[in-house]
Amino acid sequence: MFEGVQILLVDDDPKMRRAAVRALAGKGWAVTEATTGAQALAILRRGGDFVVLLALVLPDMDGRDLVARIAAAHPDMPAVIVSGADDVAVAIDAMQRGAWDYVVARARGSHLAHLPHVVARTLERRQLVRDRNHYREEMEALAVALRGTTDGVAMLDPMGRIAFVNRALAQAWKRAEAEVVGRLLGEFVYVPGEQIDLDDVLSAIGERGRWSGELRTRGIEPPQGVWDVTLTPLHFPEPAPGGAPGEVRSAVGIFRDVSEKHALEELRADFLSMVTHDIRVPLTVILGYTEMLTDPEPPPDQIPPDILTRIRESGETIHALVCNFLDLSRIEAGRMTLDRRPFDLVAMLSHAVEHYESTARRKGVRLAFEAVPLPPLVADESQLQRVVANLLGNAIKYTPSGGSVTVSTAPENGRFAVAFRDTGRGIPADEIPHLFERYRRVREAKRTEGTGLGLFIAKTIVEAHGGDILIESALGKGSTFTVLLPASHPG
Predict the structure, then answer these.
(1) Nearest residue to 465 via CA among 352, 370, 385
(2) Residue 299 has pLDDT above 80, yes or no
(3) Cα gap 173→190, rounded to integer Å
(4) Which residues have C-beta within 8 Å of that of residue 278, sequence separation ≥ 6?
(5) So what's the pLDDT on residue 117?
(6) How far apart are CA 74 and CA 44, in angstroms?
């Protein structure tokens, strides 16, 4: 266990040195001798693994000063003072300066027989210190890793109080780590539903082992603050005082934030419900009016005059849904292509306004087109028609009866600007940055028709042309969506 360790004996009294060498060599220790502190320091500088036994008084320095210098230069090297001074204050001072032990030398030399045991005990203590430092380094490294991980980690005592929490979990709970430690886990999270209580989970993991499930943060409504948690009991092989072997003394919890996954699952369910509704409604219109047209009763003069328009619009609604899904698939696969050709942008817009005139009139919305002559635009006309249809359709949809929608064009700093201005309900400022997210309609307005893909696809098409879509909105006054396209000219 102590292979390679030597004894460095520092004493200017030859008689004491000889007696100590005999006592140590008889137990197999290799001994190197020095008569002064300077000589001892020189030997140590040459290297080697030593236990230093030194006198309290040396010719060139106080033994305590030598101890301090050894401790500063070689903190892992034990130094033991052997002195005839049986003085507690002196011994305490020596220990405070770095001595590992203090042996009182007896006049008859009885202390010499104990020197080998003192050396062995000192080396055992050094090994314990090394092990302690090693474990401390491992624990510090583990603490750094736990504090740096993106998953939340918490250690709980048997009462469910938090003994340790890493930075990620504390920040998710919007607390400092010191504010979390010492408090009950149930103050921060709970088990959703009424089937099981968090206290029941904590009390049962010792008997049933690991528990995995969903916990939610208190004070935060889903889909935020949803955690996938695994609680694992920590068993101790040695019995706790008054307890049985293997008693659970604490538990560790791994918290993985699944808020986004939870939100996506809700989004998927809402999206499927929305798609089903948006397809069923126009299909019902088509089937109902078709049955009216094919039924000899009522007489033809009682058929609503706009029945064919309604059937066409319902068919276009279904067609738009299918096109949205196809476009989304192409965009996600990176296969959206543009067929750039020169065309008359003003003429295309005029045709779109004319197409939506009946829809706006039926809703009681005034539709206007204010255009200035523009040179031909080199772009994919069919793709930009999709953008215009989405923005113009939305403007009419969200404008109440008696309001107005205006489409206008203008050159702007080397670009063509197409503005869709309505007098609708407006958009809250905190929603504007999220409007172009896919499925946003499903999240924010569950009672409004639409998959929430239209604006996402429109912005993707415009950006593919090197353009942008800007939004200005005021609650209760309306919104303006402005499409900016590079003013490219053919040739």
Answers:
(1) 385
(2) no
(3) 13
(4) 317, 321, 449, 450, 451
(5) 92
(6) 9
